[in-house]
Amino acid sequence: MRGTLERHTWVFDGTGDVSPKFRRSCRYESFTPWLLAGFDLRLPADIAAGVAEAEAAIVRLDARADPALDPLARLLLRTEAIASSRIEDMQVEVRALARAEAKYDLGGSIGSEALEILRSVEAMQLAVDSVEAAPTITSELIRELHAALMQSAPPWTKAGEYRTAQNWIGGNNFNPCGAAFVPPPPDAVGPLMADLCEFASSELVSPIVQAAVAHAQFETIHPFNDGNGRTGRALIHAILGRRGVARQFVTPVSVVLGQRRDRYIEGLTAFRADELESWIEHFAFAAAKAARLSSEYLDSVSALRESWRAELAASRRAPRADSVAWKLIEVLPSQLVLTGSAAVSATGGAKPRVNQAIELLVECGILRPVTSGARNRAWEPIGLIDIVEELERGQ
User: 125, 172, 244, 245: which is deepest, by most CB within 10 A?
Assistant: First the structure.
């Protein structure tokens, strides 16, 4: 066991509308993990090989970075954030979420679940951007990630603040007795997170092992009232980026972890049982597969963009090489749903010329309208969402 169990007595505080059976005092055990200071691990040869393979796959993916592929970087990041949300049972279909995002960008209101997933995208972007802004992983950074993630959440979540009360996983909503897992008491959170940040900022182990261990330790500490899973998975990418193996592309490891959510939870449980090798092997496999899927995804979207270029070149109204229409095709992979304002911002073109370019791309069968009316119009790049859905299914 990688920690200690401590017995406690839960006493009803007399507040809230609670049925009699949950008012009775009861016993529970909290788990406080060992500190990571001085962490050292010698992996068996086969698992060490899997770790090396995963790191090499991510490095190869990152080496494909090119200005022409910049729009795809956001789609990979977006895919990771959405997959991370799905692990928490937040389910919004790809096309529906893309249209909700466009509506939100145009000032419209959207459902709370869609908005929360979009906040996950913002938090993931913050995790990636933090690599350039800060040389180390700090408690301040982790709280910023959580604040970005939970900015639309109810006040009780206390966005950006470590918890000051006991939380738990499973069981009932009123007390931790019978819970599947009870993290450490709140007074242990600060020291444990300081230790975690020191480990996450070191270079004593490989980046894959570091990300795997830091993530599992974070989930064990469960430092926030809510949003721990998504914050902990954003931490993975802050670590991989800081270690230099994933500076350009986010490897959507949550896509693979979410395919077998039960196995993912078993891996985190194995970590707490001091079965680190099992968890690291599972994490490395997920990272390697995610890198392979991402590379195939880049190929598919690049091929789709080439087909768009061919369609535009073959058009009876084929534009000049410096036209806004060609610029739009270059940025379309970052726009699952394109709005007029997004097209103007992405191309730097004047609004009338952008509108003409959009009309031409519709005529060529590259874009299709998803709204009606003269205001707040939006279009969908044909074929792009199909590729994204394939990636999110882990296929």
Answer: 245
Q: For residue range 231-262, list pLDDT tens digits in order.
A: 999 999 999 999 999 988 999 999 999 999 99
Distance CA 17, CA 13 (A): 11
pTM above 0.85, yes or no: yes
Q: What is the pLDDT of residues 45-55, one digit of tens each?
A: 999 999 999 99
**Residue range 315-340: average pLDDT?**
90
Closest CA to 237 of 85, 388, 58: 58
* Residue with tokens 């707040």, as numbered in its chain: 376
Topology of the domain covering 3-296: Fic-like fold (1.10.3290)
AA letter at 369:
P
pLDDT (0 to 100) of residue 73: 87
- Angle in degrees, CA 64, 211, 194, rounded to 5: 135
Residue 232's CB is within 10 A of a number of other CB atoms, namely 25
CATH code assigned to 306-392: 1.10.10.10
Determine the pLDDT at residue 393.
Answer: 83
Q: Where are the domains of the chain?
A: 3-296, 306-392
Grade residue 395 by pLDDT with cuts at 50, 70 and 90: low
Query: Helix/strand/coil (H, E, C) string of 357-369?
Result: HHHHHHHCCCEEE
* Tens-place pLDDT, residues 141-192: 999 999 999 999 999 999 999 999 999 999 998 999 999 999 999 999 999 9
b/e sequence 320-342, b meaning 16+ C-beta within 10 Å: eeebbbbbbbbbbbbbbbbbbeb
